[in-house]
Amino acid sequence: SSCTFFLSYLLGMTAAELRCGKSVLIGKRLWGCFEDLIVWLHIYQWMTEIQNSNSELVTQHYLGNTVENRPMYYLQISQPSDKTKKIIWMDCGIHAREWIAPAFCQWFVKEILQNYKSDPNISRFLQNLDLYILPVLNVDGYIYSWETDRLWRKNRSPHMNGTCYGTDLNRNFNSSWGSVGVSYNCSSITFCGTGPESEPETKAVAQLIERKKSDILCYLTIHSYGQYILIPYGSTTEPPSNSEELMYVGEKAAAALTEKYGTSYEVGSTSLLLYSNSGSSRDWAHMIGIPFTYTFELRDTGTHGFVLPADQIQPTCEETMLAVTTIIDYVDHKYFPGGAVMLSSSSLGLSLCLSTLLEN
Ligand SMILES: [Zn+2]
């Protein structure tokens, strides 16, 4: 049923799991399946639940309001610490119809919280890095795609006296805005808006990123479909200064992903691999100085396209998790080469001893 389908997307579980009558426990709250579920309300509740049941690690933050006046929130996963940490940003659902993207953001949060104590990689990077996760960037469009038009892509801003709707938020950032691969016609799916950051959703994200940019090491934005890991730029074929390293890490991430189920990904710049486009969030993030910026295009390669069957949600999330954590691990080791110093007296003694040796 559509309810099963919806819940499987929302909770990152397969339809089969839900059909087994397996109830879903998030925190202390038991979720049933209701026919009148309101998508955003429930993602919102899910975020609140996640925060309440992991209050030592997770906080929910207000980012801004959408065109239709819905609040936007992101989750911050931070291990309490005295030291200055850096930030990993990830957003999902900038394009409404790419439902697998928000499902992945939720999956990612769930996995981190379930495994951070037992998984040595996660516990290592959480000592150095805070994770900022925006599960649904384009809230209005996402709801519209659930309620009215499954293949809706843009936000819901009205133009031409309400005869034409929606700006492509991934053409609306201030990176060579309006120059290539966009339309100025508001009925087009790549309408870039009336100016850079003309949309409140774009502005909300851009303001936060701008404010924190000196601490942000990594900007990940999750889309579907095509099975690509894309590096800057879309607006020019001129490679970014760190393109070799971006490619190296991207290939490493794709290899980790493939190992799980054999799914193959291509890695490259948007303009060389796909098409030219301006005003993307990833290009913008790199242009303002965030070194590791990637766009993920998740499953599949076109068989089902945006309407990915529910039984692919879980494997897609599992394999993508491996790619994303590969990138985070790399960034962690690069910027925190000393690693997470364990506070047991023996290892502290050993690391002091080693650092003395290295200095001499
Ligand atoms: Zn997209």
Automatic annotation (TrEMBL):
* PROSITE patterns from the UniProt entry: CARBOXYPEPT_ZN_1, PEPTIDASE_M14
Q: Where in the cell is it found?
A: Apical cell membrane
Q: Which UniProt keywords apply?
A: Carboxypeptidase, Cell membrane, Glycoprotein, GPI-anchor, Hydrolase, Lipoprotein, Membrane, Metal-binding, Metalloprotease, Protease, Signal, Zinc
Gene3D superfamilies the UniProt entry points to: Zn peptidases (3.40.630.10)
InterPro entries, alphabetized: CARBOXYPEPT_ZN_1, Carboxypeptidase_O, Peptidase_M14
Q: Name one GO cellular component term.
A: apical plasma membrane
Q: Which residues form the active site?
A: 297 (proton donor/acceptor)
Cofactor dependence: Zn(2+)
- Signal peptide positions on this chain: 1-16
Q: How does it sit in the membrane?
A: Lipid-anchor; GPI-anchor
Please name the Pfam families in this protein's record. Peptidase_M14
Keyword hit for Signal: yes
GO biological processes: proteolysis
Give GO MF terms, alphabetically: metallocarboxypeptidase activity; zinc ion binding
The Peptidase M14 domain, residue ranges: 36-331
Q: What is the purpose of this protein?
A: Carboxypeptidase which preferentially cleaves C-terminal acidic residues from peptides and proteins. Can also cleave C-terminal hydrophobic amino acids, with a preference for small residues over large residues.
Q: Which family does it belong to?
A: Belongs to the peptidase M14 family.
- PANTHER family according to UniProt: CARBOXYPEPTIDASE O, PROTEASE FAMILY M14 CARBOXYPEPTIDASE A,B
What is the name listed in the Swiss-Prot or TrEMBL entry for this protein? Carboxypeptidase O
The species this protein belongs to is: Strigops habroptila
